[in-house]
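During the first year of the project, the team set up a workflow for recording each protein of interest as an amino acid sequence followed immediately by a discrete structure-token representation. This format lets reviewers and collaborators read both layers of information side by side without switching files. As required by the reporting guidelines, we include two representative entries from the current panel. The first entry is reproduced here exactly as it appears in our internal archive.
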Amino acid sequence: MIKNCSFVEFLDKYEAVEIPILQRDYAQGRLDLQNKELNRKGENFIKVLFDHLCSNRRLSMDIIYGSIEIRNSAESNKETFIPLDGQQRLTTLWLLHWYLVQWEGKGAEYAPRLRKFTYATRSTAREFCKQLCDMGLGHDELAKPSKYFSQKMWFTSQYGYDPTVQAMLNMLDAIAKQYEEKNQTIPLERLEQLQFRSFDIGLYNLTDDLYIKMNGRGKQLSGIENLKADFVGYLKAQGHDFSNANSYDRKFDHEWADVAWGEDENKGFDTRYLRLFHRYFYNLWIMDSEQTADNVPEDLKANFTGKEYAGFEPYKKILDKEGGRLERMVAFFDFLANEDNLVYSKRLLNPWRDEQENKYPYLLDKDIPMENRIALYAMMLYIDNSSEGINRNIDSYEKWMRIVWNLIIDPNSRNYGGQKRYMDLLSRLAPHAADIEDFLRTNDMKEISKNKRLELEKKKLEYLDKYPNRRDALLKAEASRCLQGQVGFLLEIEETDDYFKRFVELTVENIKPEWSWCAEHLWPALIALLEKPLFEIREKWGESDYLSHNSYRLQDLLNRPHIAEALCKLFDQCIAQKKDFRTVCRDLCTNYQYNEELYWHYPLVKGNILPLTEYGRIYYRGEQEGICLHKSWRVTENEWRGYWRLNEKEPILRTR
């Protein structure tokens, strides 16, 4: 324990006073979110300081705990004090001293002392403190410090994003307000009345392990703060050059963090930023793992999901897996953080999603499903396998992501096993990510994968080689929320380009996700045109198929050859007869004739019963009942459940 001392005396004892990397942001200068005024704790503290300064009374503050480091063994007399408790008070005292020194025009005289105080948390905070010490402001400029600094060329958006810098500006404004309200000159000597004691925990063989878990008098460190500390420790072990202006710890503080900063007073920043790392390493963990089960492995969930940070060892294991992973991670995060590259974020998103505004790029403000995780991995692969200025551009990226999404929208990708299988497939395609269409055209996909969706992508490109003017129309069909890229039925059209474009228009306009629309128009008309059974319902109890309109189910049905042929006939009649879709559907149903071989089609076409069902489930219920259309998935004796026997021209709803 040392005797009471003033802030200047405290600075004179040390080579530097450094707020350590594990400390949370400066909080005494934060604004209250409701009234946008300085928070109560910060306001009360600055008022107490001014009351004692104006009355020239001594103020004895609480003890400041810390440890002392000697950074250069050759200069053992030069010590650095690392405060573990007292950061808030020290920062406020430093700002108060800086302000009063500036007001008295003695900035240059006190600058050597004030420069000893620095931040190791974010480099912006450190650089901001240094900038203040190099300045000389007049009374007019000190009247509203935040306004003055915000107009300076050197005060970039990076300073605006740093919550410690913002809190410092808020506190300087509060100091200016107090000085104006007190309306009296405060001699600099009175600053000696503000005193505290410091305690070196190193003298008692204590460590700062406790502080790693708790700081700010009990406030738990956030996950991203702990990740940052561990990341810096990892960099030190790797011999990283921290003096470089582009050192990775600075990127962590600046460019990369910008991706997660945003609205609502940056509320939720820690969670968003941690998500960025979680999701990157989540994908790498999968590719390193040999686990293929459908359930998400517990280790993966524990280390790389949710809002918690479980320690750096899983990250280290991944980074150490092979050479160059750290550099690839840095290159990827640099790419994400480049404002010019934010256009890539939009192409990352599911193209068939419900339209919604995302406050933050890369979906950092929300949890994401499996297919979005795979899409992020596809973006990682694209960055790894392309080079700026050579083959990386928005056009090649769009082509890559179009193929990717047409593949991964497969419902079989929506569990861990499916995700891993699609990530493996994309990894095999990745060396050609920047020229994916040329690669698919000129190579046998069966040598890469037996994936039917991949084979369809190759067929589309071959079709477009034959009909190059149809690309825009084909992409328009792919964009349908119902079809989601599964447009193989279009590849049978050999008529003119104009005919193809009109066919696509009819497809987009009339193949809809609403069951009521399709049950009333599309399916009765298609069934009327079929020359073979709608479904291969064998005479075996429980044999069934259904027309339910979730997207992948509809895609499967329309791409079955006999249904695709009927669809072509349906739209062909619309084009040839120049009639609207509903009129053609009504005429087909009206003119439909009973076919004994397809006897169960007749009530589906003529009976107007499809709109009354929930799933369009067609089911063989045994020899007595035959083929039936169920009103719902299950049949009960309740009046709102039941089925129609399809061996009757005028079907009656039954519940038994």
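The second entry, processed by the same pipeline in the following quarter, appears below.
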Amino acid sequence: MSETKTIGPEALREAILAGSELAILDLRELGVFGDGHLLFAVNLPLSHLEARIDDFVPRKTTPIVLCSEGETDAHLTDLGAIRLADWGYADVAVLEGGLKGWEAAGFEVFSGVNVPSKAFGEFVEHTYDTPRLPPEDVKAMMDAGENMVVLDSRPWDEYHNMNIPTGVDVPGAELAYRVHDLAPDPNTTVVVNCAGRTRSIIGAQSLINAGIPNRVVALENGTMGWHLAGFDLEYGQHRRFADLTDEGHAKARAIAEKVAARFGVPTCTHDQLAAWRAEAGRTTYVLDVRNPEEFEAGHVAGSRHAPGGQLVQAWDRYIAVLGARIVLTDDDGVRATMTASWLIQMGWPEVYVLDRALEAEALAAGPYRPLVHGLDAIEVATVGPDGLDGDGVVVIDLADSLTYRDGHIPGAWFAVRARLADGTKKIPDARLTVLTSPDGVLAKLAAPEVAALGRDVAVLAGGTAAWVHAGQPMEKGFTNMADETNDVWYRPYDMDDAQEGAMKQYLSWEINLVNQLDRDGTTRFRAFPD
């Protein structure tokens, strides 16, 4: 293999400003990445490179820049460059000096995760003066029995974990779609909340942009602000929007037309999409913004699931190529149009809604299955749940540390795949080392690496999910730790202690992002006056 190219910080910043296609991939674990990174770097840990690279960077000639912290972890970019070259990626460079070199050049370093989207939320609030109410005012309205409805813009799992009293789960892209049925009385005040700030702001402004007659406000600082104000939350609730009525659907389609006109949301045909997909020099993402169950029931072949609210809140979970073309799909264009309007305001250069997305071709069904490079070529012994019984067996769990804490096979050790050479030194040697991960895929990928360390290795067939399905017990907590828990970015609600201090720090961080954006100077956020 020829020597990997490098790119200096100044040249990389110029490439970002140029607006051409570019993927900046930070190969560190997510928790380490969250401590500091480039604004437009997308986190893709080396541990997961095989399983995510094809979705993140589908075109093999896309310019890619790899980065890590610097000299201390340069092995991450070295290995990443080798693997990408093996998979056919032809334009890969490494950032000279890594994050340390970028900072030394005088450029901004951002902490946290999903920063471009969160910074955009603050931009929206400042630009449009999105109405908001502090928790105390909302609580007083509830106590007074005012005509109001609380719409929680988070996905179901977050809502089900905890929510504002009376709140109904209506994830972000569903708000303008469902609000007409949830608040048919124009005198009803609509309060939109999320965990913190971004989805509350974007959700409330979506309804305002849609022109509904109701008063709309964001709950200031979301569930965190509610908790910090000393008010009780609900847990395990099941309130969710009902099926859409014909009247509600007609109103949703009407407002989508107005939003499309205001923000210049274009559509494309299936023939145009096919031509774009065949284009050698351009990246096109096809993302379905509906609910998970709708996606699995039938979707455009080759599209990926990216719920609209989450796509706006965290586009870097789905897209890595700056300057790429984005095509959004749904069943009638409403949710795709609302989502597209926000991506356009974020500065994405080409965003389209696929016209009659589900009508013009045979649909694919079931969950999306990503391409995992090299998985089928790995030959490794497997064992079932019964194979973990007896002496001389040690289990290594490669799930993320948060998943491990919430439940793992009793006695299993936690380790991070990209750091197994060090992690396994802390794990007792055994007759057989069995690797597991939630679905077994990461465990299989890691098996040759553990075997190269001199251990006899097997993989738990079906992963930890098979263990659970077999009715086997699970253990909670950080019981056997061979590595640090900095593989995950822990949200305040994920922490075992000091939650309130973390909440205050998090909210201050979000609010201050606007000032840091001004110093950075690389965003292309767009304002659309009324």
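For the second entry, the following points were noted during internal review. The mean pLDDT is 95. The longest strand covers residues 22-26. Both points are flagged for discussion at the upcoming steering committee meeting.
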